[in-house]
């Protein structure tokens, strides 16, 4: 787990840079990402680069947003400054840090959704301001987007990513695997239209936080429309306990085979 420190092994023949530091000196805690995840390859490249450039760890500040990418700063340069910001807001925090101390080397790590979805406005303004930072976007080639229902009660973070907007976005990127969160704000109902079903073969839907929105029967209804391979289990963990999310899916009267696939 990320709170477990890596064992420090000192070898007399370890290569050292001009500062007398070894490669291990630039590492962080143990990664909790999936084995083979490309994010860890990016972390390794960062460590190798700052080692080769003889950068003192205390001269760096690492920043991130929310998502798998947000874990990355914990995995390198544990002696550096660091800040994990809220979803899509990393560029603003980087701007403030840079204004407070322009001598720091600012390294921002973000994901495709954190930067290009909820954080697109922040990212654009960071470019406009020509912020002096290294901005790394980690793209796992699966694009997940928050989705909103065009009707019903208002809640914090509901937004206006309605089915019509999601549909138009998916049509623009037919080769991209897309996950629309929260059952896509009801978009699956339109898969009963043959043209929509054919056009959105690259689209999937997750069940995150849907027990705030729908009766549990919605899962079975959408499974009958989409098939179980198009529905992905999601919980919005932190907001909703995993066990609660699982129990909700089980109440949908799907058979065990469908539940296991989801």
Give the gist of this structure:
The chain has 262 residues and is of the alpha/beta class. Helix content is 31%, strand content 13%.
- Element order: H for helix, E for strand: HEEHEHHEEHEHEHEHH
What is the CATH top level name of the largest domain?
Answer: Alpha Beta
Oligomer: single chain
Overall geometry comes to elongated
Fold topology:
Layout: H1 38-52, E1 60-64, E2 81-84, H2 90-100, E3 105-111, H3 112-116, H4 120-128, E4 134-138, E5 142-145, H5 163-172, E6 177-180, H6 194-199, E7 203-206, H7 217-226, E8 231-232, H8 242-250, H9 256-261
What does this protein structure show overall?
It contains 9 helices and 8 strands. By secondary structure, it is an alpha/beta fold. The protein has 2 domains: 23-138, Thiamin diphosphate (ThDP)-binding fold, Pyr/PP domains (Rossmann fold, 3-Layer(aba) Sandwich), CATH 3.40.50.970; 142-261, Alpha-Beta Barrel (TIM Barrel), CATH 3.20.20.140. The strands form 2 sheets. It has a 4-stranded parallel β-sheet, with helices on both faces. It has a 4-stranded parallel β-sheet with strand order 5-6-7-8. The longest helix is centred in the first third of the chain and has 15 residues, at 38-52. It is elongated and about 65 Å long.
Structure characteristics:
4-stranded parallel sheet; alpha/beta; TIM Barrel; 262 residues; 8 strands; 2 domains; Rossmann fold; 13% strand
